[in-house]
Amino acid sequence: MSEAQGFKARQAAQDILSDVLRKRRPLDAALDSCIDLDTRDAGFARAIASGTLRRLGQLDALVRGFVDKLPVPHRAGPTFEILLAGACELLFLDVAPHAAVDGANRLAQADGKAVHFKPLINALLRRISREGRDILDKQDAPRLDTPDWLWARWCAAYGEDIARAIATAHLTQAPLDIVVKEGVPPQAVPLFGHAWRIADAQRVDTIPGFAQGAFWVQDAAATLPALLLGDVAGRRVVDLCAAPGGKTAQLALAGAEVIAVERDAVRLTRLRENLDRLRLNATLLNTDVRDLCIAPAPFVLLDAPCSATGTIRRHPELPWIKGASDVTLCAAASGELLDCAAAMVEPGGLLVFAVCSLEPEEGREQVADFLARHDQFSRLSVTPHDVFGHGEFIDADGDLRTLPCHLSAQGGMDGFYAARLRRAS
């Protein structure tokens, strides 16, 4: 990689980090900074940004340990982002010290504020290149890379040992999971059901069979809620908050008559494109669940919007741009959506409620409150048979509860909660 190429990638990574850490912008949206880069530069920029965010607690502690006081952002511009990214290159991306330090100096030189702190950046990164690895060996990585608000919640909900196992799983980038419709890619290994895993990170559109609709991308844990509905062949299923469409595709592949509901028109367009690529059919409705008027159905699936703390392996920025108040807001919204979903279930029908969150208020407590409000519904417990023999995926209430530390030997999985609720006949 030439110096000019390296500069473009590092500049994009700096912009991404500033967007995420200062504007609390999701990483996927901030990655738009890479749109004009070639494939190699874009990959390097993504690696720097995502690696820095995944190890942000460690890097922050390391940098602050070398200076008495960091310059304030108003005066320093992107100095802190340059330091964090440079340290990530040195310690986690194995970039040669001279290249990482020179790249950071060039970034500082190009910024009207950071240029005044170029001597600090140069000296600090050189010291990190010499002493940083010894310091890393003494750090408590899972604890440092988990903000206090999440650590306290997970310890309370799961106990410190499981909280630590969850946090440890977040230190590793998630593999690529796919659901196979036809023709398994040669590099994929089976997990369960139609879920397969590709360990080596790569662009999904370069994998044989993608363009032909042989598979779609979906975390293995995310495939389980739709399966809790059981045999849906020839039956009507209402899939609420359906985008990005993995569950819609599952249900369509199983032979269901799917009505997929999504209020975001852009996300619904992508869902339609995915179904077209997969050659699968569903009725798509662009509307808010709360405004939907539809005849009751035998099956309803609600994958509710949530804090998404179960997906931190794939979205390492989430712990740093969200807080406990986001959990409270999401829980309140989910309760309203769950009440609406209940009204769409015919007598004797099934409602599956799911969230990709680790937080009890969005999962277990949400369902407990729902059952207290709706005495015509009762819990239909998940059995090991429903989850391919993985009894560890079932909590004490009989609900689905996957954790990022599950399947650890195979690379982990997303954290998902789902409850299966039957309406009285």
Q: Which SSEs are present, and which pair or pack?
A:
Layout: H1 3-23, H2 27-30, H3 39-54, H4 56-66, H5 73-76, H6 79-91, H7 97-109, H8 118-138, H9 141-144, H10 148-158, H11 160-169, E1 176-180, E2 189-192, E3 195-198, E4 215-217, H12 224-227, E5 236-240, H13 246-253, E6 257-261, H14 265-278, E7 283-285, E8 297-303, H15 318-321, H16 324-342, E9 345-355, H17 364-373, E10 377-379, E11 400-402, E12 416-423
Parallel strand pairs: 5-6, 5-8, 6-7, 8-9
Antiparallel strand pairs: 1-3, 1-4, 2-3, 9-12, 10-12, 11-12
Task: Please provide a written account of the structure.
It is built from 17 helices and 12 strands. The N and C termini lie far apart (66 Å). It folds into 2 domains: 137 residues, Orthogonal Bundle (N-utilizing Substance Protein B Homolog, Chain A); 204 residues, Vaccinia Virus protein VP39 (Rossmann fold). With 425 residues, it is α/β, with parallel strands linked by helices. The radius of gyration is 23 Å and the shape is elongated. Strands 5, 6, 7, 8, 9, 10, 11 and 12 form an 8-stranded mixed sheet that branches. A 4-stranded antiparallel sheet has the order 2-3-1-4, with helices on one face. Strand 6, helix 14 and strand 7 form a beta-alpha-beta unit.
Question: Would you list the SSEs in sequence order as H and E?
Answer: HHHHHHHHHHHEEEEHEHEHEEHHEHEEE
Question: What is the global morphology?
Answer: elongated
Report the biggest beta sheet as strand number plus sense, adding barrel if it closes.
Answer: 8 strands, mixed
Domains (count): 2
The low-confidence runs, each spanning 5 or more residues with pLDDT under 50, are none
Q: Mean pLDDT across all residues, rounded? A: 95
Spell out the CATH superfamily of the largest domain. Answer: Vaccinia Virus protein VP39
Classified by CATH, the class of the largest domain is: Alpha Beta
The CATH architecture name of the largest domain reads 3-Layer(aba) Sandwich
Radius of gyration, in Å, reads: 23 Å
* Helix percent band: 40-55%
Helical segment count: 17
> How many distinct beta strands?
12
Our estimate of the beta-strand percent is 5-15%
Q: By helix and strand content, what is the structural category?
A: alpha/beta
